[in-house]
From TrEMBL:
Pfam families: GATase_6 (PF13522), Pribosyltran (PF00156). The active site is at residue 35. The gene is purF. It comes from the Bacteria. This is Amidophosphoribosyltransferase. HAMAP family: PurF. The lineage of its organism: Bacteria, Bacillati, Bacillota, Bacilli, Bacillales. Mg(2+) binds at residues 317, 379-380. Residues 35-253 form the Glutamine amidotransferase type-2 domain. Keywords: 4Fe-4S, Glutamine amidotransferase, Glycosyltransferase, Iron, Iron-sulfur, Magnesium, Metal-binding, Purine biosynthesis, Transferase. CDD domains: GPATase_N (cd00715), PRTases_typeI (cd06223). Pathway: Purine metabolism; IMP biosynthesis via de novo pathway; N(1)-(5-phospho-D-ribosyl)glycinamide from 5-phospho-alpha-D-ribose 1-diphosphate: step 1/2. NCBIfam families: purF. InterPro entries: GATase_2_dom (IPR017932), Ntn_hydrolases_N (IPR029055), PRTase-like (IPR029057), PRTase_dom (IPR000836), PurF (IPR005854), PurF_N (IPR035584).
Length: 494
């Protein structure tokens, strides 16, 4: 039973102010979120759990949402463009019957913003129904796709997730678990997969554990999520992280089993999850995100103290680091910047003057807090530099006498090939400018980036024998944990 939410008017258009995350340069020049997955095994109200779980993961993708349930071997699914609350309602949720389910929120990083690419992707193959949801990016997807097409495969989407479905369908193994193992071994990249058939649910993580992926429990039911914050939302408890190169398998009539489909490689959890992407109330590898960001802020203060009157953070991901910086220095933390959370999507085109002042539609400076003050502005990263310039100028227009910018991560110099939407290297300001040149470009009185070691110490995974403490830092140091091709050839599209 399939339901698709069609929209006669396109949701995103570059002609309008709020044009969508990947339709060119947006007012907030931040890194593009990844995707989020949520899964349920053995709960009578699986669809509702997925709905609330996706709400908790909404920050990971605002373009589309979908749920596929399994009702004693019969699949029901619904997908639509937009936010979770825009896609689902009581009428379509009540049709999603079943005790097992997988769900997805999507942010397309290169795959087209179309309903056909919304996940979970659902297929018919020789073994019956198959549904797949993923967070991440398959680096060798283009090569595999060309190989499969030359062998007769016909692709229905531009999502690299479909590659896995074809590999499973073409496997010489009839057993789904063995077929999935065989398929996963051919992939290179970062991925957290939820794979559902009529009697099986499989959770699988890439050999470097690049993407966060956790298992929880609610009564006798088991849950999977890209972030632990979703477990709190539905009242579940965290059990463990899915490990690198691991499959956790549930099959009707069998006990849960855990198997390795390949040898785990050097662990390389994305450092930007700790810095920016994950919600502050999530834990990754048992490290709380808010606590890690506070430590980064404290270390940033030690590395780059400057005398000032107030400390403020760019909402929302930089607030924790700003609090840490303020606590370390003794400079008061203030809400100098306020985010408007209700701008939503709009199809009303503003005047050019309003477009140029567009940052004020989403962010406001609190004049009474910053007027006549020396301000330390904490942010988590600088991508192109355009947003930093707008925010610095926003503070100056509100009367700040000095604006000192402190970034709670190293300079972002290299594109990501693992499911984060980043500009090409030539468009990353830190790849083509010195720190002093960046300072001038963003109109700051001073600028300092946290050192890589400071960031890793702040994350706090410890000296576990893994390179960079078990974090992927390729965007900072150009050391990728897997083979990667030319950035113009590889396009991330979960």
């Amino acid at each position: 039973m399939s339901h698709e939410l069609e929209n006669k008017q396109p949701l995103w258009t570059g002609d309008y102010y709020n044009e969508g995350m990947n339709a060119g340069e947006s007012i907030f020049d931040k890194l593009g979120e990844e995707c989020g997955v949520f899964g349920v095994w053995g709960h009578g109200d699986a669809a509702s759990l997925c709905y609330y779980g996706l709400h908790a993961l909404q920050h990971r993708g605002q373009e589309s949402a979908g749920i596929c349930t399994n009702d004693n071997g019969t699949f029901h699914y619904y997908r639509g463009m937009g936010l979770v609350k825009e896609v689902f309602n009581n009428n379509n949720l009540k049709d999603l019957k079943g005790s097992n389910a997988i769900a997805h929120v999507r942010y397309s990083t290169a795959g087209e913003s179309k309903l056909v690419n919304a996940q979970p992707l659902v297929f018919k193959y020789r073994g019956g129904d198959l549904a797949i949801a993923t967070n991440g990016n398959i680096v060798n997807a283009k090569e595999l796709r060309q190989q499969l097409e030359s062998q007769g495969s016909i692709f229905q989407t531009s999502s690299d997730t479909e590659v896995l479905a074809h590999l499973i369908a073409r496997s010489e193994h009839n057993d789904i678990v063995t077929a999935v193992k065989h398929a996963l071994k051919q992939l290179v990249g970062a991925y957290a997969f939820l794979i559902q058939t009529q009697d099986t649910l499989i959770a699988a993580l890439d050999p470097n554990a690049l993407r966060p992926f956790a298992m929880g429990q609610l009564g006798d039911a088991y849950l999977f999520s890209s972030e632990t914050c979703a477990f709190d939302t539905v009242g579940a408890s965290y059990v463990r992280d899915v490990h690198a190169g691991e499959m956790i398998i549930f099959q009707q009539g069998h006990e849960m089993r855990i198997e390795s489909y390949t040898e785990a490689k050097n662990k390389a959890v994305c450092a930007m999850e700790y810095v920016y992407f994950a919600r502050p109330d999530s834990d990754i590898d048992t490290v709380n995100i808010h606590a890690a960001r506070k430590r980064m802020g404290k270390l940033l203060a030690i590395e780059a103290f400057t005398d000032a009157d107030v400390v403020t953070g760019v909402p929302d991901s930089s607030i924790s680091a700003a609090i840490g910086y303020a606590e370390q220095t003794g400079i008061p933390y203030e809400l100098g910047l306020i985010k408007n959370r209700y701008t939503g999507r709009t199809f009303i085109e503003p005047s050019q003057e309003l477009r140029e002042q567009g940052v004020k539609m989403k962010l406001s400076a609190v004049r009474k807090v910053v007027e006549g003050k020396r301000v330390v502005m904490i942010d988590d990263s600088i991508v192109r530099g355009t947003t930093s310039l707008r925010i610095v100028n926003l503070l100056r227009e509100a009367g700040a006498t000095e604006v000192h910018v402190r970034i709670s991560s190293p300079p972002f110099q290299n594109p990501c090939f693992y499911g984060i939407d980043t500009p090409t290297r030539k468009d990353l300001i830190a790849a083509t400018h010195t720190i002093e040149e960046i300072r001038k470009a963003i109109n700051a009185d001073s600028l300092y980036f946290l050192s890589k070691q400071g960031m890793l110490d702040g994350i706090g995974l410890g000296s576990n024998g893994e390179p960079n403490g078990g974090c992927c830092t390729a965007c900072f140091d150009n050391h990728y944990p897997t083979p990667v091709g030319d950035e113009d050839e590889i396009k991330a599209c979960c």
